[in-house]
Design a protein that fits this description.
0% strand
C-alpha cells in the first residue's frame, strides 16, 4: 500500500513540476510580448509628440501666410507682384520648344 501511495505522490509531483515549467515558459513569452508592446507604445508616443508639434506649427498664422504666398502666389492688399524673366521662362508653356514635333508625329515617323 505504501508503494502505491509513493508512486501516486511521485506522479502528482511530476505533474505539478511539469505544469510549473509550462507556466514559467508562458510567463517568459508574455514578458517578451509586454516588452515589445512597450517599445511600440514608446515609438507611438514619440510619433504622436512629433505630429503634435508639427500640427502646432502648421496651425500658426505665419505658416498659413507663408504657404499662401509660396504655393498659391497670393499677396497682401497693397503689395504688387513682380514677375521676372526667370519666372516666365520656367512656366510650362515657355518650356515647349516651337521646333519640337508633337508626340503623335514622332510615333508616326517611327512606324511609317
Amino acid at each position: 500500500m505504501k508503494k502505491v501511495l509513493a508512486i501516486f505522490v511521485a506522479i502528482a509531483c511530476l505533474l505539478i513540476i511539469n505544469n510549473l515549467i509550462h507556466s514559467i515558459y508562458n510567463l517568459w513569452q508574455k514578458r517578451d510580448l509586454v516588452t515589445s508592446a512597450q517599445e511600440e507604445l514608446n515609438k507611438a508616443k514619440e510619433q504622436n509628440k512629433a505630429l503634435k508639434s508639427k500640427l502646432s506649427q502648421v496651425d500658426s498664422p505665419q505658416f498659413i501666410e507663408e504657404e499662401a504666398r509660396n504655393k498659391l502666389f497670393l499677396v497682401k492688399p497693397g503689395e504688387e507682384i513682380l514677375i521676372t524673366k526667370d519666372l516666365l521662362n520656367s512656366s510650362p508653356s515657355a518650356k515647349l520648344n516651337e521646333n519640337e514635333k508633337p508626340n503623335w508625329q514622332k510615333w508616326w515617323e517611327l512606324f511609317f
